[in-house]
Structure formats: structure tokens, C-alpha cells
Amino acid sequence: QVQLVESGGGSVESGGSLRLSCVTSGTTISRYAMGWFRQAPGKQREGVAVINNAGITTVADSVKGRFTISRDNDKNMLYLQMNNLKPEDTAMYYCAADGKWWFASLKRWEFAYWGQGTQVTVSS
Description:
Number of strands: 11
Order of helices and strands: EEEEEEEEEEE
Number of helices: 0
Shape: globular
């Protein structure tokens, strides 16, 4: 059973930075595409950034140039470095994984495994 646990969320002021982490257990992430998604109150869950097992990434236009996704297969870890945060980045952030290791799309319905989320709040 694949289990994902996020950490690193918190409250920051506009322009600040946070680094989210996701640890995976029950499998080795080298076999999986991994991604970060977010959901703000009253809105649909949206893709933020995805990375496949070849290191190919897809990043949402809304965060391009500010957020960076990376993975450490040896440690079974996924990261999201978030810089220059804006109030509109406020959301619950979720880590996701799927066995389609070649996958690098932001389509949330393509991901089978999800963490419980970590809250990010950005004040103006």
C-alpha cells in the first residue's frame, strides 16, 4: 500500500518562501510519477507541478518561475520549493503518486495515490 505524508506547510507573508516535503512508504517512488496539487476553499483541486521518473517536469503557468518540483528517489522524497508566494497560493497542498512512471501531466484524475495534505496560507 502506497502511503504519502506531506509536511512543510505554514503561514507566511506575501513574498515569502516555503518548502513542502512528501515522504512515501510502501513502495519505491522511482517507479512512480509524482506530483503536487492544491485546493483552495470552494475551488477544484488543481495541478501545481508534476515530475516523472525521468525527471521531466510540468509546472502550472500560475506558479511557473516561482515553484520548483524535485524528487530524491534514494530517500523516497518529493519536494516543492515555493518562492515569492502570493495570497492566491493559499490552499491545501497535496502530494500524489501514480504508477504511470512516464506521466508528466497535471491531470489530477490520473493520479491514484494521495496524501492528506498540508496547509499553506499566504497573507498580504
